[in-house]
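Allow me, if you will, to draw on your knowledge of protein folds for a short while. I have a record of one protein: its chain in single-letter code and its fold written as discrete structure tokens. Could you please explain, in whatever detail you think fit, how the structure tokens follow from the sequence? The record follows directly beneath this note:
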Amino acid sequence: MSYPIMVDITNKQVVVVGGGKVAERKIRGLQEANANVIVVAPEVTEYIQQLANGGELVWRKKYFSPGDLEDAFLIIAATNNREINEAVAQAAQPYQLINVVDAPTQSNFYVPSIVRRGKLTIAVSTEGASPTLAKKICQEIAEMYDEDYGNYIDFLYECRQYILRNVSDSDKKQQLLQAITGEEFRKSTNWEKEFRKLFERVMGE
């Protein structure tokens, strides 16, 4: 059983071994997380080539060697060659995070299927048992939590900061935080107006 966490990889060095479509999908997610990506592969997709040309990642146009993993915080072995992926797994140090796309048992972390709505991230993992099922569940979740949730989460963040700055009473603080996450509040047409009314009512009690 794995331990689910959210890892901040901003400006962390991440090495992706492989330059095909699977590597490309991994790279898209890594870029969203603002990682410093290094790709090791003799050939890459057009998309990865464009990123390299634009200076958005480093492409080492070569076959993998153990030295490529030096200083890597996180490693992804994403080639279509089992022997190369095995070599990457063997070269990784115990303190490095590694995901081998075709060998979950040689990985110490998994990349879940993800639904993002602004600051809201919902991750689904079957721990490698069925990535297809994880994607299916994510599709169902995406229908439940539409794009408007991104704006709602941003609003909740601002409200929470305001409440923490201006409310000292712990009971009232909790009452406000609970109320703004209620379904009735979320479905209101004017969140700012409803929050002002709610704040005045709670603080006046």
About this structure: The chain has two domains: 13-111, 148-203. The longest strand covers residues 13-17.
